[in-house]
């Protein structure tokens, strides 16, 4: 879950506009609360997205795990069934229904935020508030049922919610009644409240997601079998082996989880937020969440009292270190010394850059600080995405370092064995020592380079110097080449495949370089005659529709600022997509579908991919497609790191073609690695062609004036354009009197891209590791095959097809967002909404099929889907022109009835 955990870095700044009610509209208390919630829509979207990801993962991998094999006594238990369904049936049902409710409620929130024509309504935002509360309580119920096995411990969750709620309410009430007179009724500045709210929302959302995952997946794992006097299958191992440690972990983690959810709910109310900040109630809840996280980490990350004491002591040591630093820097002599050293260092850097500029630009009379300003602007605009690159690269390399490819030995080596190893040692280090060392050093280099990127971006000493930009480029290239080396060494076991990954970089860069050179030749003032003749000949041979699609608009009438803003938007979208794709394919390469052999036997070696021995052609297809997508993603990132090269690459469509190659590689890897039969792979390939057909249809709709006019007439028939400014309590996010574009319209493609990328990541990982697990070597089935294909073939097919549909719909959205003429027109936005709805419905179907093994429980999820769809349809009907006509009819009928029964007439 590295990619979903890191998405908050980009969502924090995706939308910065604050909705302001238009003049002339009365704002009452209900409308003010609705306006307040609409201003926080980016944080609500972040909360719903992360909640959907964790509930989807928890539904497909429920607490307690799955049965590894069928019941030997001929019972009803089958391999792949949830263990809790047999040992704790009521608790499992409670977890399933609450988790499913939270999952569907999260998707409802996403849908409510994405429907632009309805998102400005008061009733719509009230429905959003109800969905958020349902989501929060669903998470609480699922956590209470799945994180423990005792009724008293489950009751603790709800009792803690009530106690925290009462504490905050009493705190705020006392402050409202008595504090204003004591403090002179001082009002906290709005900017301080907004900044604190932003930080608390991000922290509380992330804390809630990680504590939910830790609660339903207890450290130490679960017992695979039952013992009458000791434990049942599905019980946490930590509870039996270390009962005191488990209690500390549970209560600390639960406290952090509940405090985080309470903070999120309270921050969604403007009144409570104002008084909560001034009364320090929210800060107390945040402190409780932080203390709970520390306690859960200290008790769950180790098994020794000494190491737990060390973790707790680290907190005091860090606080002591910060205090010492603050005292030192507040000291006047030390402050003056640091200021003098910093000024001397900056003078040296300015002198170095001034000499470099004078040597490169002798014919120009520019100020020496211009290069610094240009570098500063580049860093300022790219800081968020470079931070995202550093965070994701550090997270995937950290995880790959702790869990290297090939897995670990499950037991100690025999006395007469050829190699000596202990349980927990990396298998690859024994079977392929050179390959493991190459992977280790490259992965460590990439990890350290990622940390260097983060340190450079977070430091202010070199923030305005061009040398920092050069250092960042060097660190990024070192980071990405380290990732390539680690991928080439760890994703395969043959030299030929490693060479393929290493050499794949050459044609990719050569292709993009040719595109950039061709574009530079086209804009060069003096071109050779043969180039001019060749260009004219190609233009004559090309069809008109292709010219219209790929020709660049004339920039004579456009201002330079608009062109630069457009290029910056395309650059950010491409960079974000490439970063997420690189992290996803790196993780899939390190842990291929089917897992690894745990023991060396005749025909295979421990640490080798199981899929390579049982399905060699399928594994080869998966490897080459995944490697192509990985290298293409890194190539795009490297080229986008240089602003001049990225501008030429974007305008010459070189980088865009690389991104299309990246997405096609993801499609091929998904088709090869997510299934074991040819028929299902053919279905995925058919979906791929459907993606391309959908793109062609969307382009046709955008370029056709007839289709555009038909869409406008259809919208006018529905009455979408008949809403007035103040009717029905619309928000002030609409178009201003001067015709300026709505800021929500400008941010909507970024929201769609983030949601599509997250959905693609979740469905890709779910396909590589399907629910129910995989068959092992000791069974009578083929090792590496999904267990559900044998015991529940229809359910597995439903899960696979729905999951594949969601994955392909996500790719449709990402591809459409790369086409400017498609993403900037109303018909294309409608298509993007339709694709996102199809994506979310595919997620719902995959969840219904893969999260349970009974028809009744699946029917519950489907009933929720139908109910949600009907609810949204009713709100749609109530919000378009039909509602206006019905209101006019009701007003006329009311007038007639009032006149008939008037007192004067009687």
UniProtKB/TrEMBL annotation:
<feature type="domain" description="PGG">
    <location>
        <begin position="566"/>
        <end position="676"/>
    </location>
</feature>
<feature type="transmembrane region" description="Helical">
    <location>
        <begin position="828"/>
        <end position="848"/>
    </location>
</feature>
<keyword id="KW-0812">Transmembrane</keyword>
<feature type="transmembrane region" description="Helical">
    <location>
        <begin position="573"/>
        <end position="590"/>
    </location>
</feature>
<feature type="transmembrane region" description="Helical">
    <location>
        <begin position="384"/>
        <end position="402"/>
    </location>
</feature>
<feature type="transmembrane region" description="Helical">
    <location>
        <begin position="860"/>
        <end position="883"/>
    </location>
</feature>
<feature type="transmembrane region" description="Helical">
    <location>
        <begin position="436"/>
        <end position="458"/>
    </location>
</feature>
<feature type="domain" description="PGG">
    <location>
        <begin position="36"/>
        <end position="149"/>
    </location>
</feature>
<feature type="domain" description="PGG">
    <location>
        <begin position="379"/>
        <end position="493"/>
    </location>
</feature>
<feature type="coiled-coil region">
    <location>
        <begin position="338"/>
        <end position="365"/>
    </location>
</feature>
<feature type="domain" description="PGG">
    <location>
        <begin position="192"/>
        <end position="303"/>
    </location>
</feature>
<feature type="transmembrane region" description="Helical">
    <location>
        <begin position="680"/>
        <end position="703"/>
    </location>
</feature>
<feature type="transmembrane region" description="Helical">
    <location>
        <begin position="310"/>
        <end position="330"/>
    </location>
</feature>
<feature type="transmembrane region" description="Helical">
    <location>
        <begin position="151"/>
        <end position="178"/>
    </location>
</feature>
<feature type="transmembrane region" description="Helical">
    <location>
        <begin position="43"/>
        <end position="60"/>
    </location>
</feature>
<feature type="transmembrane region" description="Helical">
    <location>
        <begin position="280"/>
        <end position="298"/>
    </location>
</feature>
<protein>
    <recommendedName>
        <fullName>PGG domain-containing protein</fullName>
    </recommendedName>
</protein>
<dbReference type="GO" id="GO:0016020">
    <property type="term" value="C:membrane"/>
</dbReference>
<feature type="transmembrane region" description="Helical">
    <location>
        <begin position="199"/>
        <end position="216"/>
    </location>
</feature>
<feature type="transmembrane region" description="Helical">
    <location>
        <begin position="470"/>
        <end position="488"/>
    </location>
</feature>
<keyword id="KW-1133">Transmembrane helix</keyword>
<dbReference type="InterPro" id="IPR026961">
    <property type="entry name" value="PGG_dom"/>
</dbReference>
<feature type="transmembrane region" description="Helical">
    <location>
        <begin position="127"/>
        <end position="145"/>
    </location>
</feature>
<feature type="transmembrane region" description="Helical">
    <location>
        <begin position="500"/>
        <end position="521"/>
    </location>
</feature>
<keyword id="KW-0472">Membrane</keyword>
<feature type="transmembrane region" description="Helical">
    <location>
        <begin position="94"/>
        <end position="115"/>
    </location>
</feature>
<feature type="domain" description="PGG">
    <location>
        <begin position="745"/>
        <end position="853"/>
    </location>
</feature>
<keyword id="KW-0175">Coiled coil</keyword>
<feature type="transmembrane region" description="Helical">
    <location>
        <begin position="798"/>
        <end position="819"/>
    </location>
</feature>
<dbReference type="Pfam" id="PF13962">
    <property type="entry name" value="PGG"/>
</dbReference>
<feature type="transmembrane region" description="Helical">
    <location>
        <begin position="246"/>
        <end position="268"/>
    </location>
</feature>
<feature type="transmembrane region" description="Helical">
    <location>
        <begin position="653"/>
        <end position="674"/>
    </location>
</feature>
<feature type="transmembrane region" description="Helical">
    <location>
        <begin position="619"/>
        <end position="641"/>
    </location>
</feature>
């Amino acid at each position: 879950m590295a990619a979903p955990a890191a998405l908050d870095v980009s969502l924090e700044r995706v939308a910065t506009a604050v909705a302001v009610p238009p003049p002339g509209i009365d704002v009452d208390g209900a409308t003010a609360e609705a306006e307040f919630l609409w201003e926080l829509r980016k944080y609500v979207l972040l909360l719903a997205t992360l909640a959907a990801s964790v509930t989807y993962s928890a539904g497909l991998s429920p607490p307690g795990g799955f049965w590894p094999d069928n019941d030997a006594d001929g019972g009803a238990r089958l391999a792949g069934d949830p263990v809790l369904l047999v040992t704790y049936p009521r608790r499992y049902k409670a977890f399933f229904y609450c988790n499913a409710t939270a999952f569907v409620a999260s998707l409802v929130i996403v849908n409510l935020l994405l429907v632009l024509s309805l998102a400005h309504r008061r009733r719509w935002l009230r429905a959003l508030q109800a969905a958020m509360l349902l989501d929060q309580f669903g998470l609480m119920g699922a956590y209470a049922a799945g994180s423990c096995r005792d009724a008293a411990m489950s009751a603790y969750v709800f009792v803690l919610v009530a106690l925290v709620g009462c504490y905050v309410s009493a705190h705020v009430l006392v402050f409202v009644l008595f504090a204003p007179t004591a403090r002179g009724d001082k009002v906290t500045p709005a900017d301080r409240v907004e900044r604190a709210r932003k930080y608390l929302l991000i922290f509380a959302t992330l804390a809630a997601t990680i504590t939910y995952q830790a609660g339903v997946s207890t450290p130490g794992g679960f017992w695979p079998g039952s013992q009458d006097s000791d434990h049942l299958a599905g019980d946490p191992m930590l509870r039996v082996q270390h009962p005191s440690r488990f209690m500390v972990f549970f209560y600390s983690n639960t406290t952090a989880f509940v405090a985080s959810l309470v903070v999120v709910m309270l921050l969604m109310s403007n009144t409570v937020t104002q008084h909560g900040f001034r009364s320090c109630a929210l800060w107390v809840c945040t402190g409780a969440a932080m203390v709970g996280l520390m306690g859960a980490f200290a008790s769950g990350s180790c098994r020794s009292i000494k190491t737990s004491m060390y973790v707790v002591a680290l907190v005091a040591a860090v606080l002591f270190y910060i205090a010492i630093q603050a005292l030192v820097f507040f000291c006047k002599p030390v402050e003056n010394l640091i200021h003098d050293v910093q000024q001397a260092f900056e003078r040296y850097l300015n002198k170095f850059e001034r000499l470099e500029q004078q040597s490169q630009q002798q014919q120009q009379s520019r100020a020496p600080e211009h290069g610094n300003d240009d570098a500063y602007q580049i860093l300022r605009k790219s800081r968020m995405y470079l931070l995202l690159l550093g965070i994701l690269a550090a997270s995937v390399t950290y995880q790959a370092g702790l869990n290297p490819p090939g897995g670990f030995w499950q037991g100690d080596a025999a006395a007469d064995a050829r190699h000596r190893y202990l349980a927990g040692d990396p298998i690859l280090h024994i079977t392929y020592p050179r390959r493991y060392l190459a992977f280790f050093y490259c992965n460590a280099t990439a990890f350290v380079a990622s940390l260097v990127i983060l340190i450079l971006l977070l430091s202010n000493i070199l923030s305005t110097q061009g040398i920092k930009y050069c250092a960042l480029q060097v660190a990024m290239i070192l980071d990405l080449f380290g990732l390539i080396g680690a991928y080439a060494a760890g994703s395969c076991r043959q030299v030929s495949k490693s060479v393929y990954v290493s050499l794949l970089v050459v044609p990719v860069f050569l292709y993009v370089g040719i595109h950039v050179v061709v574009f530079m030749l086209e804009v060069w003032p003096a071109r050779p005659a043969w180039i001019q003749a060749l260009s004219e000949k190609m233009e004559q041979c090309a069809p008109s529709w292709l010219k219209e699609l790929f020709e660049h608009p004339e920039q004579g009438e456009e201002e330079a600022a608009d062109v630069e803003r457009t290029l910056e938007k395309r650059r950010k979208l491409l960079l974000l997509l490439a970063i997420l794709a690189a992290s996803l394919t790196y993780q899939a390469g390190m842990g291929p579908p089917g897992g690894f052999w745990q023991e060396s036997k005749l025909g295979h070696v421990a640490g080798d991919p199981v899929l390579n021995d049982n399905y060699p052609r399928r594994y080869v297809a998966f490897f080459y497609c995944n490697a192509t997508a990985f290298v293409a993603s890194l190539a795009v990132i490297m080229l986008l790191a240089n602003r001049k090269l990225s501008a030429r690459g974007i305008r010459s469509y070189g980088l865009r073609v690389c991104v299309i190659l990246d997405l096609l590689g993801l499609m091929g890897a998904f088709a090869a690695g997510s299934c074991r039969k040819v028929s299902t792979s053919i279905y995925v390939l058919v979906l791929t062609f459907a993606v391309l057909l959908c793109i062609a249809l969307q382009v046709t709709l955008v370029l056709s004036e007839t289709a555009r006019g038909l869409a406008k007439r259809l919208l006018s028939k529905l009455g979408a354009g008949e809403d007035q400014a103040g009717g029905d309590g619309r928000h002030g996010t609409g178009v201003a009197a001067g015709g300026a574009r709505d800021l929500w319209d400008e941010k909507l493609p970024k929201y769609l891209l983030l949601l599509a990328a997250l959905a693609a990541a979740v469905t890709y990982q779910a396909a590589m590791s399907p629910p129910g697990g995989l068959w092992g070597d000791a069974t009578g089935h083929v090792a590496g095959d999904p267990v559900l294909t044998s015991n529940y073939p229809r359910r597995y097919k439903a899960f696979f097809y729905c999951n594949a549909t969601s994955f392909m719909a996500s790719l449709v959205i990402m591809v459409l967002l790369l086409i400017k003429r498609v993403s900037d027109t109303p018909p294309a936005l409608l298509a993007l909404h339709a694709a996102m709805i199809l994506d979310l419905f595919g997620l719902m179907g995959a969840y219904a099929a893969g999260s349970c093994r009974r028809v009744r429980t699946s029917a519950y999820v489907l009933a929720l889907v139908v109910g949600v769809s009907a609810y949204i349809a009713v709100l749609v009907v109530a919000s378009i022109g039909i509602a206006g006509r019905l209101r006019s009819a009701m007003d006329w009928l009311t007038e007639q009835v009032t006149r008939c029964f008037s007192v004067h007439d009687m």
